[in-house]
Specification:
Leucine Aminopeptidase, subunit E, domain 1; alpha/beta; six-stranded mixed beta sheet; 487 residues; eight-stranded mixed beta sheet; 2 domains; Aminopeptidase; 19 strands
């Protein structure tokens, strides 16, 4: 269902349609003279007497045969993310009750519980409304219209472009993650990224030939078993002249992951289309920054490969020389994301000399064992950067939990036959040793954070702002991180 939001000075009729009112905690209505008659108020208050101890915070009832009222009870001290989640909850309510058009009386929002309440409320509602039905033969094209009755605030108008950019960036990420592997293989993915030039991004695609010449052999090794190409794609946004050093965001883009010769179990292998969710978050972020004309310089770098089994695929025991010059013994071909990121991180640091680097990847199942689907794992060589990311995550409800890095973990990744191996041969600390491996490819002590989003990128049951499937995790988190600290 697509959502259309329009501001109007007044409703078509004050006594017909579906009217939405905001009430204070436990459905307390105050200062209702301008939008409720005495008779209506008396009727509503009689209904609300039975709702004061209700656990519901959204109710509806008919006041006459033409008019339905929806009342939304607002708890005290709502945070911005609470308001967005409430908007998402409201979307579920109207969808369940099959309402096609509602009028929200913004004047009923007397206590102003959160700055730009209406903007955040409708933002959450729109994020929740996302559906991926591209491949369904029968598509239902329904439009839900929200008329906002009242005068828009200055802050609402200011934030309108930002929220729209965030929605488009998040939806683009979700679209990419939702695509099946036979459609969004590396060749197609690279083509779609070239189309982002129209938003003002500078896009460069490095194909197999260029990557081989440069020496990104760790990345190429992962993709060598596929009939598809392997690519590194850079997306640059230049929105500031005063801060020349860019912020860099790096994403793992394994478009389908069989595990290679270290083959994954057949059960749930179909979900491995989302192993490129880290790259999709980077791409969605870059689109968001371009759409809202962010006043920063940023670069997104994504490694796009397909990890397949064939006569040309990488074998367990192979040794590859990475872009950094360090050699890697590949003991497990299903520990492939770190090989892609190893080359991508060194390339990004060397070419762009960024102020900081944040990488995102669905890297380990171990992080799901640790944190489930509530937090992404954060590993970093910089306390300040970690704190900034955690705070940004709390603001948008895309939470992070910092996990340890320590030199003592290095010995678990040392190899007898090469500089390092790509798995921890002892077992345990799977997410930490993967991050410790990545840290070896940060050559110039650049501030760096690794976000393991394996438990957050895709949701079987849905979350606060998504209805199941691809979540778009990371776009809003990193946009908030940039807003709070670098603009």
């Amino acid at each position: 269902m697509s959502v259309q939001v329009v501001y109007k000075n007044k409703a078509k009729s004050s006594n017909s349609g579906v009217i939405v009112l905001f009430a204070e905690d436990k459905f307390q209505l105050k200062n209702t003279k301008t939008f409720l008659s005495k008779k209506e108020k008396s009727y509503v208050e009689r209904i609300l007497k039975n709702k004061k101890n209700s656990k519901e915070n959204i109710i509806s009832f008919n006041i006459n045969e033409k008019t339905t009222y929806i009342l939304i009870s607002l708890k005290k001290n709502l945070k911005g993310s609470d308001v967005e989640n409430l908007g998402a909850q409201f979307y579920n309510f109207i969808k369940k009750n099959l309402f096609k058009e509602v009028s929200i009386i913004t004047e009923s929002l007397k206590s102003k519980p959160q700055k730009d309440f209406i903007g955040r409320f409708t933002h959450g509602l729109k994020l929740k409304s996302y559906e991926f039905n591209l491949y369904k033969s029968k598509k239902t094209k329904s439009v839900f219209t929200i008329s906002l009755i009242g005068k828009p605030s200055t802050l609402y108008l200011k934030n309108k472009l930002k929220f729209k950019a965030l929605e488009e960036g998040t939806f683009f990420t979700r679209d990419l993650v939702s695509e099946p592997g036979n459609i969004l293989h590396p060749d197609e993915y690279a083509k779609r990224l070239l189309k982002l030039k129209k938003y003002g991004l500078k896009v460069a695609v490095y194909d197999k030939k260029k990557l081989k010449k440069l020496g990104l052999n760790a990345l190429l090794g992962v993709g060598q078993g596929s009939i598809r190409g392997s690519y590194l794609v850079t997306l640059e946004w230049k929105g500031s002249r005063s801060k020349p050093k860019p912020l860099a965001f790096v994403g793992k883009g394994v478009c389908f992951d069989t595990g290679g010769y270290s083959l994954k179990p057949a059960r749930f292998m179909e979900d491995m289309t989302y192993d490129m969710a880290g790259s999709a978050a980077v791409v969605g972020l870059m689109k968001t920054l371009a759409l809202r004309k962010a006043k920063i310089n940023a670069v997104g770098v994504v490694g796009l490969v397909e990890n397949m089994v064939s006569g040309n695929a990488q074998r367990p025991g192979d040794i590859v020389k990475s872009y950094s010059g360090k050699t890697i013994e590949v003991l497990n071909t299903d520990a492939e994301g770190r090989l892609v990121l190893a080359d991508a991180l060194t390339f990004t640091e060397k070419k762009f000399k960024p102020e900081l680097m944040v990488d995102l990847a669905t890297l380990t199942g171990a992080i799901i064992v640790s944190l489930g689907s509530e937090y992404a794992g954060l590993f970093s060589n910089d306390d300040k950067l970690s704190k900034q990311l955690i705070q940004a995550g709390e603001r948008v409800d895309e939470k992070l939990w910092r996990m340890p890095l320590h030199k003592n973990f290095d010995k678990l990744m040392d190899s007898k036959n090469a500089d390092m191996q790509n798995i921890n041969y002892v077992g345990g600390a799977g997410s930490t040793t993967a991050a410790q491996f990545l840290q070896r490819f940060i050559l110039n002590k650049t501030s760096w954070a690794h976000l393991d989003i394996a438990g957050m990128a895709f949701s079987k049951y849905g979350g606060a702002l998504n209805s199941g499937g691809a979540t778009g995790y990371g776009v809003r988190l990193l946009n908030q991180f940039i807003e709070d600290n670098y603009e």
